[in-house]
Amino acid sequence: MNEDPRYLRAALRRRGIPALEKAVGRGVKGSLIRTAALLRTDADFLEALAEEAERGVVQNDGEDVLLRADGLVGLPDSLAGRVVRRALLAQGTVPESAHVEAVIGLATARPGSSVSLRGALKAKREKEYVRLSRSSPRSEGRRRTAARP
Q1: What's the pLDDT score for residue 104?
Q2: Lower Cβ count inside 10 Å, N or C end of the chain?
Q3: Is residue 92 a part of any domain in this protein?
């Protein structure tokens, strides 16, 4: 797997970096390694801040997760995204950036606004919160039955 060029990391290591070094006429590997180390340090710091911010924004309501809308809006984008991503992961969904952005967008939307996410997960803007919940087959069946004349 580490040598299989179908994987981006392996393809970059075996083809991309040598091509880049040939194009610029000097080694870039050391520079990339130093930059990656700096980015890792920054990412670790942001994750620690996000974990702290999460305590003031996220709460559980049974199986649902509630995100305080005003708390989410008050965070810098880099922290808000991490808080939402962590909440979605805790709900068993591996979020794409579009999912994270949609949930953050609900924090400024009108109550009642909602978005469907993968894995039967739904994000809905309530008065003070964005609620992350899974629709259960039983509650879906009740809604369909209740909607029939």
Answers
A1: 97
A2: C
A3: yes
Confidence of residue 147 (pLDDT cuts 50, 70, 90): very low
Tell me 125's DSSP state: E
For residue 114, the domain's CATH number is 3.30.465.60
Helix ranges (H only) for 58-147 are 69-73, 77-90, 97-106, 137-147
Question: What pTM, to 2 d.p., does this model score?
Answer: 0.78
Q: How far is CA 52 from the centre of its chain?
A: 17
| Number of residues that make up the chain | 149
Who has greater pLDDT, 23 or 138? 23
Residue 129 is part of which domain span?
A: 56-140
CA distance 104 to 109: 9
Total domains present in the chain: 1
